[in-house]
Design brief:
Blueprint lengths: L2 H25 L4 H31 L1 H27 L18 H25 L6 H24 L4 H26 L4 H31 L2 H18 L1
Helix pairs in contact: 1-4, 1-5, 1-6, 2-3, 2-5, 2-7, 2-8, 3-4, 3-7, 4-6, 4-7, 5-8
């Protein structure tokens, strides 16, 4: 299978975890503390993948300075876009309670939440595609980390959408759309960067990694801490070491 199609497929698989999480939240009433615990675990998994796979690989291939610049640039761009979306009603898009505004409370919040979900998913698809361009197949530790973290993201956000009266058509339209967009992002990214130098790929990996870490801190950790409280740190630590063990194995 061509690398571009592989990137599209794995981006779709990783994004599909969002749909699975949303489906669980829609058909079952999952306690908020359980959602928070899974979110904390997913945050730890992603942080581990960033530290031991993405950023390390970017620095080894592209050097320290380009990695630092790319990492900070990715985080800055993500935060800037997130601030703009937060002002339009997407601040609490991953919260499972009643924090998300309804369309009646803030017009346009539905579109902002959908765009915010897309903003969260694109960097993850980018790093999956970049791992394929390295020639060693998809990065399994990163794929597992993204899948594990996407499940509670979809679960928590869909629970919040349902609590605020959004329809099943809207909820599943958002998450299926994000899953498809994730696959397309991986596909077109590989097509665009085919033949790029290892240094360029390393720099883009650092940009995507910075955006992912900013996303974890801005949207996942607040939900985890609010409900799991002092246990959030321990659960995140377990997620971190599980991902590290997968990477080393």
């Amino acid at each position: 299978m061509p690398i571009a199609l592989q990137a599209g497929w794995w981006g779709l698989v990783a994004g599909g975890a969002l749909v699975v999480g949303a489906l669980i939240a829609w058909v079952a009433r999952v306690p908020q503390k359980v959602i928070a615990a899974i979110m904390a675990f997913g945050a730890g998994v992603l942080i581990s993948a960033l530290a031991f796979d993405l950023v390390d690989e970017a620095e080894t291939t592209g050097g320290l300075i380009p990695t630092v610049i790319g990492f900070l640039a990715g985080a800055s761009v993500y935060v800037g876009a997130n601030v703009a979306l937060a002002r339009r009603g997407a601040r609490h898009r991953k919260r499972s309670g009643g924090q998300q505004p309804s369309e009646g409370e803030q017009q346009g919040s539905g579109a902002a939440i959908a765009v915010g979900a897309l903003l969260d998913g694109i960097p993850e698809s980018v790093v999956l595609g970049l791992s394929l361009l390295g020639g060693g197949g998809v990065g399994v530790p990163v794929l597992v980390a993204i899948f594990i973290s996407n499940l509670p993201e979809g679960l928590s956000s869909a629970a919040g959408m349902k609590a605020n009266g959004r329809s099943a058509r809207y909820v599943f339209g958002v998450w299926i759309g994000i899953a498809v967009a994730s696959g397309l992002a991986g596909l077109f990214e590989v097509l665009a960067l085919s033949g790029a130098s290892p240094e360029v790929i390393a720099s883009i990996t650092a940009v995507a990694a910075g955006a992912i870490l900013a996303m974890v801190a801005d949207t996942m950790i607040p939900e985890a801490f609010e409900q799991a409280h002092i246990y959030a740190g321990l659960i995140a630590t377990v997620g971190f070491i599980v991902a590290f063990a997968i990477e080393r194995a």
